[in-house]
Write a structure and sequence with these properties.
Distance between the termini: 10 Å
Strand order of the largest sheet: 1-3-2-4-5-6-7-8-9-10
Low-confidence stretches: 1-33, 170-183, 284-291, 566-586
Strand content: 5-15%
Helix content: 25-40%
Number of strands: 13
Number of helices: 21
Structural class: alpha/beta
């Protein structure tokens, strides 16, 4: 039984949880009135518009979801609000006509940072003290205290929202004023900003993960990924994308991590299921009376809300061009909105995302429900209008597979970089262990701090800015030091997408080098690479599966010249005895 659990990487839990979720939380068992789109009160903010005008844009509208003040039989309603903003009488002095691709990318990253509004301390001294003591702050070695770090982070953000709050005499996240409960860390719903430029047109910016609702919604996107292929993708990132060698530190971590990961996996899945269930229940409780498809809300979480915002923005274009952008989960949402408009209206609007969750796999089969997004978009096609910018070592930014072009940042001198320095202690660990680290008292608390330090240098908007605002990493035409490439489109039923079935523990590896540093799920067998099949297999399969190019083992040279280092070896005699005793036992 223990061997079965190890070889299945506790995926046997997933169908059980999925079935339970489908039974208790299906649309048939929930009352989901549709969610309406309403026009919020008009905002007049001339000073704030003048402030943002230095970037060549004006704020056109704020999109959010709000709990209604009146209770109904089903509870308080959740409503989508579009708050229109008075445009300035005189257009911004800065004009964006003729801007280079690099200037557009930098502008959009700035808009994404502003979508978060004022941010409290996201790190804490336990994360930042070692970074600041070493003089490694992304804002420069002169930053020595947490207070200085926060001041530097907020320097470009507070001015705009301070002016909005002052002129409207409200608090940005105050429900009774603007009704923006999605802007509150404890809020629910999708939050987006709609910008206007006389030269560019309309720019729709989706905020990334910020609220508790955001945190829960993304579990429906990534839970199976985390427990199945996340570790394999991390190895591919380190070895092939970043071009770094697998170190002794990472091998030491890998041996223990595999055992801890097996214990963490059912806890992670159980917790994700619990929160997803509560999340959908809360959506049902506060759902409104008109607008969205009730069954789809029950099956796809925030997707119907994203569509409502997207449709609202499209209806207010007035013939202008639309651009779409977002960061992190908001980047994934921006890509989905772009795919949706392409699928429904045959409109391909330029979309630029940062550190986004990819959308090729989860859109086909959402976790903890029986839902998908296939009626609304096509993950089986190439989407040339979507470009993603991501750091080579951003673990979150490599969740799932991107749906368009991926431009990789930060590969120049990466071996001596801070991302490599702080992320090396993370990449030898496995998915569920990383996601559970620090969430249970006493469980891998030090690993949780290391993981957050890694993300500080790779994932957050200000970390991405280190590279986007540097000409050495971002060229005038928008290409990057790590290169831009169209991500391969996975066919229907591709085994590269996570599923509920067991794997060998080798089969998810994406390259020869990643295969070389891997073992079977039981840890008993090394993995070997078949170049002709582009497949990684446990060594015992060489007895029954041929490879026309011959197998590449740990001691061989990979065809692409990128090699890992020897991983965990197994006792040769044990292998022979187990194989002769019968492969079925493993």
């Amino acid at each position: 039984f223990a061997s079965m659990v190890r070889d299945s990487r506790p995926r046997w839990m997933v169908p059980l949880l999925g079935a339970a979720m489908a039974t208790c939380c299906s649309a048939d068992n929930f009352w989901f009135p549709p969610i309406p789109t309403k026009e919020g009160r008009r905002l007049t903010i001339p000073a704030a518009q003048e402030y943002i005008g230095k970037y060549g844009l004006s704020l056109k509208a704020v999109h959010t979801h709000s709990l209604s003040l009146e209770a109904t039989e089903g509870g308080r309603r959740l409503e989508h609000y579009r708050f229109p903003v008075d445009l300035p009488e005189t257009p911004p002095a800065r004009r964006l006509a003729g801007s280079s691709r690099r200037e557009i990318v930098r502008l959009f990253l700035k808009l994404n940072s502003m979508a978060y509004g004022r941010t409290a301390d996201p790190w804490g001294s336990d994360v930042m003290d070692p970074i600041l003591a070493a003089g490694d702050s992304i804002y420069g070695s002169s930053i020595k205290t947490l207070e200085q770090e926060l001041a530097a982070m907020q320097a470009d953000l507070d001015g705009f929202w301070d002016l909005v709050e002052e002129e409207e005499n409200v608090t940005y996240a105050e429900e009774t004023a603007l009704g923006m409960t999605a802007t509150d860390a404890a809020g629910m719903g999708v939050h987006a900003l709609e910008w206007h430029s006389a030269d560019l047109g309309t720019v729709l910016t989706f905020r990334g993960t910020y609220s508790s609702g955001d945190e829960t919604n993304i579990q429906m996107w990534i839970s199976t990924w985390v427990t199945t292929v996340m570790s394999a993708k991390m190895k591919y990132q380190w070895l092939n994308v970043a071009g770094l060698p697998w170190s002794d530190i990472m091998n030491e971590d890998k041996a223990l991590s595999s055992l801890i990961n097996d214990a963490a996996t059912p806890i992670f899945l159980g917790g994700s299921y619990f929160y997803a269930s509560s999340f959908l229940t809360n959506l049902q409780t506060v759902a409104s009376e008109h607008g969205l498809d009730a069954e789809k809300v029950a099956l796809t979480g925030y997707w119907e809300f994203t569509k409502a915002i997207t449709e609202s923005v499209r209806s207010n274009l007035d013939g202008s061009t639309l651009w779409i952008t977002g960061h992190s989960q908001g980047g994934g949402r921006a890509a989905l909105a772009s795919m949706y408009l392409e699928h429904k209206y045959n409109e391909k609007w330029e979309t630029i995302t940062f550190a986004a969750v990819g959308g090729q796999c989860f859109t086909r089969d959402l976790d903890f429900t029986t839902g998908n997004m296939l009626e609304d978009l096509d993950p089986y096609s190439t989407h040339t209008q979507i470009t993603e910018y991501v750091h080579a070592l951003d673990i979150y930014g490599f969740y799932d597979y991107d749906v368009g072009t991926r431009c990789t940042l930060g590969t120049t001198n990466i071996a001596s970089s801070n991302p490599k320095k702080y992320c090396e202690y993370v990449f030898g660990h496995e998915g569920a262990e990383l996601m559970m680290a620090g969430r249970v008292p006493g469980f891998s608390e030090e690993l949780a701090l290391k993981f957050r330090r890694c993300r500080y240098f790779t994932h957050y908007w200000n970390a991405i800015g280190v590279y986007v605002y540097d000409d050495n990493y971002l060229s005038e035409n928008g290409t990057t030091d790590g290169g831009c490439e169209q991500v391969e489109t996975l066919p229907e039923n591709s085994d590269r997408c996570p599923n509920l079935f067991t794997t060998s523990g080798c089969g998810d590896e994406l390259s020869c080098a990643a295969c070389q540093v891997s073992t079977s799920s039981t840890g008993l067998f090394n993995c070997v690479w078949c170049e002709s099949d582009q497949a990684c297999r446990p060594s015992y399969e060489t007895l029954i599966t041929s490879c026309s190019s011959g197998y590449t083992s740990k001691s061989d040279t990979c065809a692409d010249g990128v090699n890992g280092v020897p991983g965990l070896s197994v006792n040769g005699l044990l292998v022979v005895l187990l194989a002769s005793a019968g492969l079925a036992l493993l």
